[in-house]
C-alpha cells in the first residue's frame, strides 16, 4: 500500500513501507536535516574558525533551547550522543562508590544495552544487580512503585529505571518513584530515552539525581543528539567517558562540567546544533504546538491499539494513562516464528516484535507519529489476522 499522507512530505521515509516503528530510531524531518547540512557546510568551509570561534556559542544556544523544552536549567545539561552513553557515563563515574554487598536496583523492563552497563559495573565492583519484577500486562501505575520499592533495601546504592520503557512502552510513574526512592536515600538514574517529545517533561520537578534522554526519537532531531541532566550538587562526581582538554583547562568562564562534556575530541556537533530546529519545526506543525502534537500522537496510538485488540481478541494490557505515543500488546499464539520478517517482506510493514517472558512470549509494539494514519494500522491488523487464520487452517 502507498503511505503518502498530508505530513509524509516532510519525511524521507520509504513510501512503499508502512512504517510503524518511529520509536526505535526516530525519523528526522527533511527541513531539520537541511539545517544540519547547512551547519556542516559552515563547519567545513572554515573548520578552525567554526570550532575556535562559533561552535561554543552555537552549542550554548542549542542547550538553552533544549533546557527550556525539558524543564531544566542549561547549567544542568550536557549533550551526549545517545541515552545509552548517558547511562554509561553515570555508571562509570559512580563505579568507585560501589563494592561487595552493595545493590544496584533496576526492573525487568530496562533496555538491554543499559542493563548491560549495569551488569558491567556490578562485575567490576562486586555489587549485585537486583531486579524488580514489574508485571506486564499491568492494571495500575501503582504496581510499578510497589514492585520497585519491594526490592529496595538499605544496601541499595542506585536505582536505574525507565521513564518510558522500550519493550513494553509503559510510562512509569516517575515523579512518585523518584520521590519514594529519595526518601529512602536512594538516588535514581533515569533512562528517559523515549520521553523527550513524547510526553511533557519538567526535569527540575521530577527531581532525579540523573536523567538522560534522546533527541533523535520523538523530538525528531538528527541521529547522535541526546542529553544528560545532572543537578549542580552532583556534577562534581561526573566525568565524561572520554577525558579530554577540559580536564585541565584554566578557564573559569564556564563550569568544569561543561568544559569536560562539551569537548571530548573532534566530532560532528551538528546533530546537537540542529536540536533547536527540530523543536521549532515539530512545534509548528499543529496550531496547538507541541502539546497538541503529543496529545494527537497519544490519541492515535490508543485508537490503533484498540483496533489491534479487537481484531485479534487481545485484552488491552495497560491503562491509557500509562501510554504515550507507543503501545505494546501481547501477541496471540499461533503466529509464525519469523513474524517480523514476514510482515516486512510480504506485507511491507515495519513494526518490532519483542521477546517477552511469561505469560506472553512475544509482544508487538506500535508507534504513532504525525505522519502515521489509521489505514496503516488497519493494514497491520488485517495482515496479522490473515496470518493467524492461515495458521489455524494449515
Short summary of the structure?
Helix content is 42%, strand content 13%. With 394 residues, the chain is of the alpha/beta class. The strands form 3 sheets. Strands 2-8-7-6-5-3-4 form a 7-stranded mixed sheet, with helices on both faces.
Question: What does it look like?
Answer:
The protein has 394 residues and is an alpha/beta fold. 42% of the residues lie in helices and 13% in strands. The chain has helices spanning 22-25, 30-45, 47-70, 83-94, 112-125, 142-151, 174-183, 203-206, 256-262, 270-273, 275-283, 289-312, 339-347, 374-393, and strands spanning 18-19, 77-80, 103-107, 128-132, 156-162, 188-191, 210-214, 226-229, 326-330, 349-350, 353-355, 362-367. Strands 2-8-7-6-5-3-4 form a seven-stranded mixed β-sheet, with helices on both faces. A three-stranded antiparallel β-sheet has the order 9-12-11, with helices on one face. It has a two-stranded parallel ribbon with strand order 1-10. α5 (112-125) links the parallel β3 (103-107) and β4. α2 runs antiparallel to α3 (47-70) and α12 (289-312) runs parallel beside α14 (374-393). It is globular. The model has no long low-confidence stretch (mean pLDDT 96).
Index terms:
394 residues, alpha/beta, 14 helices, 12 strands
Counted beta strands: 12
Q: From the alpha-carbon coordinates, what is the Rg to the nearest angstrom?
A: 22 Å
**Helix proportion range:** 40-55%
- Give the overall form: globular
The share of residues in extended strands comes to 5-15%
Within the largest sheet, what's the order of strands? Answer: 2-8-7-6-5-3-4
Topology order in helix (H) and strand (E) letters: EHHHEHEHEHEHEHEEHHHHEHEEEH
The biggest beta sheet reads: 7 strands, mixed
The computed structural class is alpha/beta
Low-pLDDT stretches are none
Mean pLDDT, as a whole number?
96
The first-to-last residue Cα distance is 26 Å
Distinct helical segment count? 14
